[in-house]
Amino acid sequence: MAGLAKTGMEWLQDPLSWLFVASVVFVEFSKLFGAFNIGDFFPWLSWADPQGINVRLRAARAALDEFIDKIIDEHMARGKSPDDVDADMVDDMLAFLPEAKPKKAAGDGGDELQSTLRLTRDNIKAIIMDVMFGGTETVASAIEWAMAEMMHSPDDLRRLQKELADTVGFDRNVDESDLDKLPFLKCVIKETLRLHPPIPLLLHETAEDCVVGGYAVPRASRVMINVFAIGRDAKAWKDPDTFRPSRFVAGEGEAAGVDFKGGCFEFLPFGSGRRSCPGMALGLYALELAVAQLAHGFSWALPDGMKPSELDMSDIFGLTAPRATRLYAVPTPRLTCPLVADVNVDEHNKWISMLPACMLRLPLSI
Ligand code: HEM
């Protein structure tokens, strides 16, 4: 959540706004993006919109538009300059919008900036939407799956926790500078993205006639790439359905050289080529840091003495192929320091130790 402040969406930290957007708008968009739309398969039927999907899409879009307009208006009213220490991503973009002049820097380099690049209000809205959609559900879904897979495979959780204890120690939390020293963490993340790509189906359109695998594909055909199925293809992966991060470990696993940057076609969680994910670095950073902090900060147990083998690992249809049942897990503090700075460690641990009573629901508590 801390990252939201710099993106200009700290208003999402207001519980009521967040509840509305998360429970109404995001959920509705997620359902609609993942819905089976008859018009996609029989385009001549799409004008009739037999399932009412287009009507719902327009309504969800209007609700989201209203929210994003509010963010932009609030930022224009406060008139921060990109140089202000508390300026965020929206303030940065407003510097390129002709009708928004920062109060403090009036007459200053604003015109100069706008002669290099001009953005319209719609451009800024589109970028905010990209960050909101690209960077929230994808990362949240992957964090929940990573934790669920490790609860289901406790040896892997223990191996990751040992790596964290050896590298970071128990007297502080993991931070960004540790991430490059945690090779097993990277393997856990890769294995999670292989089995549970947050965007399981990529939708593209062919730009020209082509032949793929002996099939002639005409220009302007809609192409769906099933990244989920590719990641579990038995021809490309040994034990394809097993969560086994060690397959990626250098010098140990058979898939050590396989990466997700778009060149290994058996592993495409971020897509490939010009339309691949532009937020890969940010998404990975958020994902790695969250999983590392959860694994390092707490010992984890399943509720009511549930065995790992009893954990439901099924998924359901939807934009991010989410878990069919939410993950519930009980944390116990592991560190000798508080997770938040400037807090008394005893008070902090007392507070955390109350969590098992109310059961931590992972995605909402992150
Ligand atoms: C674990 C995290 C993430 C995963 C797995 C992921 C995956 C993907 C995938 C598979 C695509 C579609 C590629 C294609 O169609 O070939 C995509 C597109 C996109 N992603 Fe991400 N993404 C993640 C995080 C982010 C973040 C953090 C942002 C921005 C803050 C972001 C912004 C976007 C945008 C704007 C597109 C559309 C690109 C285009 O249409 O050209 N993503 N992402």
UniProtKB/TrEMBL annotation:
Q: Which GO terms of the molecular function aspect are on file? A: heme binding; iron ion binding; monooxygenase activity; oxidoreductase activity, acting on paired donors, with incorporation or reduction of molecular oxygen
- The family this protein is said to belong to: Belongs to the cytochrome P450 family.
Cofactors named for this entry: heme
**Protein's organism:** Triticum turgidum subsp. durum (Durum wheat)
Looking up InterPro entries in the UniProt record yields: CYP450_84A, Cyt_P450, Cyt_P450_CS, Cyt_P450_E_grp-I, Cyt_P450_sf
Residues that coordinate or bind heme: 277
Sorted UniProt keywords: Heme, Iron, Membrane, Metal-binding, Monooxygenase, Oxidoreductase, Transmembrane, Transmembrane helix
The name on file for this protein is Cytochrome P450 84A1
Q: Which residues form a coiled coil?
A: none
Q: What's one Pfam family here?
A: p450
